[in-house]
Amino acid sequence: MSDLSDEKLILVPYKKGRRFRRFSILLVFSVMASCAGFFMGQWRVELAYAEALQQRAQLLNSIKLYQKTDMELRQKLANFERGQAIDTEARKNVLQTIQSLESQVSQLKGDVTFYKNIMAPSSGDNLLQIRKVEISPSNNERRFGYKFVLAKVSNNNTYISGVVAVNLIGEIHGKKEIFPLRDISEETELGIKFRFRYFQSIEGDLVLPDAFVPEKVQIVAQSKGKKAVRVEDTFDWRVGETGSDVGKKSG
């Protein structure tokens, strides 16, 4: 009995709803903490998103600036290259013009010498001469234009007449061949008639026979009359050259 008498019974007053209030308060604080955490996280996300948008806008502006700079540099490069191309073309045209003028000057000098020899010959010159032999190409690789000048070297103003024959000397497969102008051109006569007081230009077209490789041009001129003379010259086959020194006599 002594043991039971030592135990004390404590009575606590019971208040209805107290536990529920505690639970409710704890629940409210938990919800508030959760909401605060949620809104804090949401705010941080929105802040990070705003910063990302700002950085994106800055990057887009930088890209636009770089693109504009790149376009300007490309335009400057294109202008520079175009300017270089124009300068190169201009220099090329100037060089071509200079070369053309030099060629014309050379030809004019040759013409002046040619006419001087005709109009003021020396007493030791032959009565008839062959000058200015020219061979010119065409669109057809076997077709060529020919031109040569017969000149009278004399102090009188009388006419000289006669015939001139032209032969092409070359090879076909290593075999020597000679073709008269009549066989390779529209000329129907073996000799071309001429008549002039000072000089006469004879020209036309010829077509090379198949496999024929020309080497020489032989020209034989025969005048008529009391002082008839015969002149024969052989010239190298040279295409595209002009001037009084063209068709230089072969040795």
TrEMBL record:
> What are the protein's UniProt keywords?
Coiled coil, Membrane, Transmembrane, Transmembrane helix
Q: Which parts pass through the membrane?
A: 23-43
Superkingdom, taxonomy of origin: Bacteria
List the residue ranges forming a coiled coil, or say none. 49-111
The record ties this protein, via Pfam families, to:
DUF6776
Q: How is this protein named in the record?
A: Membrane or secreted protein
Provide the species name.
Answer: Oleiphilus messinensis
